[in-house]
Amino acid sequence: MHAEIAGAGFAGLVAAIALRQRGWTARVHEIDTELRAFGAGIFIWDNGLRVLQAIGAYDAVADGAYAAPGYRTERNGVCMSFGKVNSEGHFRLLTMSRQHLYSAILAAARRAGVELETNSGAIGATPDGVLHLADGRRLQADLVIGADGVRSAVRESLALPGARKKYIDGIIRVLVPRGPLVGGRWDEVIDFWAFAPRTLRILYTPCGTDSLYMAMMAPVADAAASAIPVDPDVWASCFPDLRPALEAIGTKGRYDVYETTRLERWSAGRVAIVGDSAHAMPPTLAQGAGCAMMNALGLAVAVEGVSRNDLPAALAAWEARERPLTDHTQSSAAHLAATRALAEGMPWDSDVFRAVRHVPTGT
Question: Do strands 93-97 and 115-117 pair parallel, antiparallel, or not at all (unpaired)?
């Protein structure tokens, strides 16, 4: 059995590795000229770490990732919540650059014998398992997977019913040197919120001894705070202790508005849609990559040993099994984005952590 996969992001690569582990051949098509990650830093909670173990990428990810001792929320200088992480009886959370995570998964894909093509952009697919490429090729497969991102060409070509929604806030993601922000509380993940003199948020995240990831939320309506390049004075007016990091940003960063993508169904015939193509969500729970990787692995499990004729039914069963958790996580992330409720503190005992507690299919 053979799969053609559009998109060499986390979901596409995990799906390809997991299929290879189950005896399939898999070819992944990437529109760009090189295989690399976009963005800055990333959180991987317990559920995502389990997937990485299942595909043989965990050791490489853990080697060089950062394990913070705690996660606190501060609003206008007041600590609203604190939770231990990465110690016995608490959630595991590794933080790292997106490129670090991507390199480890890409190496696992190459070890697994996944075929990788760059400069190979998908423009669509048909339910009978044909992937259409921009260079004119029409590739027949037993299974086609659309993992080509929020603006998925594969998804759009199938005219799958769905909706996209944008929110009142967006985010700037940057990696900078930690500089003097080392030791004590600066070794924790800190979710800084301010509502005066303006509404801003910085999710301060060490990614190692020298690297710092900052996810900087600003309202769409705040032109000064959402501007690129970042104006350190605007942000330091709310977070003066972070000025050294803010001044190190320079011209880095891109402002992206929070949004969700929700499809009525995740497949058509022998084409499956996975990752941000199917269920993009705001980053408020740091579960976009986690859900993408869980569903990609679950997809491979669902089609193992299935005949070509039975693949549509297997895809329907995959969605029925995996979707409830993804829908719950997406809805929870969207609620937090719409209400800015995380400013009240991280709800550690809440059901919003259902995905973190979940043992993914195939692990």
Answer: unpaired
